[in-house]
Amino acid sequence: MADTSPIPPVDSEVPEGYGLYHADTRSHYDTLTEQFGDVDGQLIDTTITSPPYGDVKDYGYDEELQIGLGDDYEDYLEELRRVYKQTYDLTKPDGSLWVIVNTFKKGGRTIRLPTDIADICENLENKTNCDKCGAPLTKDRETGVHYCTDDECSFEYDSIADSWVLQDIVIWDKVRALPYSGKGKFRNVFEYILCFSKQNDFHFDLDKIRIADATEFKDWWINYPERYHPRGKVPDNIWEMVTPTQGGWGNMTIDHPAPFPRPLVERIIQLTTDPGDVVFDHFAGTGTVLAQAEAMNRWPLGFELSDDYVGAYSTLREEIIEEWKERQAEGNTLEEEQARLAQKIWRLRQLVFPRKLLQSLPGSSEERDLGELNINTVFLDGCADDELLAARETERVPLKTAIIVDDDTSEAARVELTESLAAAQEEDPCSAVPVDADVSVQTVSEFVGETANEFEASPLYLYDKNDYNYPAGTITIETWDAMVQTPDGWRQNHVAYEYPPVISNLYLNVDSDGKEVVTDIEEVRASEGGATLTDF
User: Fold this and answer.
1) N or C: which end of the chain has fewer CB within 10 A?
2) Which CATH superfamily is domain 19-122+163-203+237-332 in?
């Protein structure tokens, strides 16, 4: 056999010892302990793997070294148990094990390999008999505790305490698959992904794998952005990911009987690790897991016996890393997609705030007549810091808000409106919008003469007719001042459902599918009469 020193990562900053080992995974604990020293519970962060399928698949190398090939099924499971036990011993307390596996048919019946793997992983010591009396143990399927079958013996054994714990089962919908079927067997288009951990509190960061695709939302997210997470929707437990095309049909160099789709590996790595963590695959094949881990700045570790697969690894790794760099350069990684969605949702939350504020005024919607409040415009100086809006840690943003009323509004009416708006901020739906709003009520003259400079920006965007998700155009304070001198004409052109237009430094141009609504955004200009807009 070839030298068992690993094929090292491309990144020279990764410590020595990481990479792909051309060695037998049945002794990976000894190999890695020899390489790294005493690393019990300190080495691996997550393992992403798929077991060899016993007699079902021949992986093209020495039959005596292939786990399960030519073996009794029970012996095959015991070999897998020993492999998973070694991985358990090397995994950190908050680490996890992900096993992609499927059932198969043999002798006319379906072999429930996923269930059997779950059983062996949750009883790594393979304790089957009572320590006290030697009688067989029986397992409580609900608790996982094993009890002695001798009624006079009180022995109990909790195998979970020193074994993997099955946390969840995901269905991998392969979308397309080999068109094989047969009598008593449908075309197989899915596999199971078993998620195990060493403890219940394990590394599992769902926010990092949220689907940053507005089409996954309901159409009304545009009107209720406060109800949607800025980084997208949590995936469900059915993952639609196309099986990589084998041979010469795809863009990648893949020639393996069971290749992983890159997005599946990427998702698990994002979910369970951080940069610098160790990603392991004890049945590495051509090395998709290791290559994707290295591309994402994790430390790759894996074992593979096939000369052909090990020989293909360097080429596949180069392609995967190059593809990842291209995605980073184009801003097409999930992290970048989440950042862009978060920026849109935070801007939208700020732009809809005035509507939520007015909806929260005392009294029922039937009793409120917003037209009688003399509000003609709302100016917003919002948070436009892309870095802050994209940050996962951002929970609230500041928002300076000026409610502009007509010059002929009485002082008493302004005071009453100010008090009502202050109370409205504590009521639903306004209170659900995560902004720290500084709200003032001003007449047109007061605003122009005293505080307009606090809202001045270039450009300012006009959002009108109750459409706060895309601008009607850009506008200057001078143009707005000229146009609003005829309040009725201004309202006729820009108010819808009694909600006033918003003028803001914030730019947003998005429909319910996350796409741009308008392509040409022109400046709004006052006509000679100062009450209408030019066409644009």
Assistant:
1) N
2) Vaccinia Virus protein VP39 (3.40.50.150)
